[in-house]
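Entry 14. Ran structure prediction on the chain below.
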Amino acid sequence: MIFNISTIRWLFLGCVVFLSSCKVYKQDIMFRLDDNFTEEDLSEPVKKAEENYLIQVNDYIELNLFTNDGERIIDPNPEIFSGNNNLNNRLNSRQQFEYLVQVDGVVKLPVVDRVNLAGLTVNEAEIVLQSAYNEFYKDCFVKIKVNNRRVVLLGANGGQVILLENENVTLAEVLALYGGLSLGAKANNIKLIRGDLSNPMVYQMDLTTIDGMRSTIIKVEPGDIIYVEPWRRPWLAGLRDVSPILSITSSVIAFFLLIQSITR
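Output, structure tokens:
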């Protein structure tokens, strides 16, 4: 039995060429845009970069309420409370509750019951709640926190959900929280997808230039999807994908050569 090595060699090269074709290795490129997109499309979100976050329906609010204008927070006279450590420990370890902003914009809270907070900034909501609780307690000091603000980042390093801890978080900050852009990421093709996914607004940014970097002042909003397109190296990826085939082929060839040498 004569084994035709030349035929297998050409077959192997054909597989490499096919697998390394650009079309094959663009299958995981997402959210393509047409050539009509311009930098002017970024003007509206850039103008909003300095605005504060507005509380929205389905947000979860964490409430902290203090009397005497929050004196207990800074405790300027610790000796007054030094003999009451058990009480302080109970206060510090008390369970934190989250309150849902319902579809009508109302939050149901202890004592004051239903309060409309949707559409308010965090500072405005604190003032509203302060006034509401002052009817029941003396000199109230209120701090609230929105706990479920997050964005989704998809890139060469995989996907990650990033929580927005601060106000006015920019795209550059989110990318830093993600770990930056790796060698496999395209800095010139970053897309921000916002709004209803059935008809979203899509903004494309190029961070390879100073002018493009200016667009990163765009403020991300909860629910945004950020996509960093990965680089594709067809030949390298093709060789990587055919490595198992090469290994199997080499084993088969070695086996047939061994058979031929034995039968001679």
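The chain has a mean pLDDT of 73. Will compare against last week's run tomorrow.
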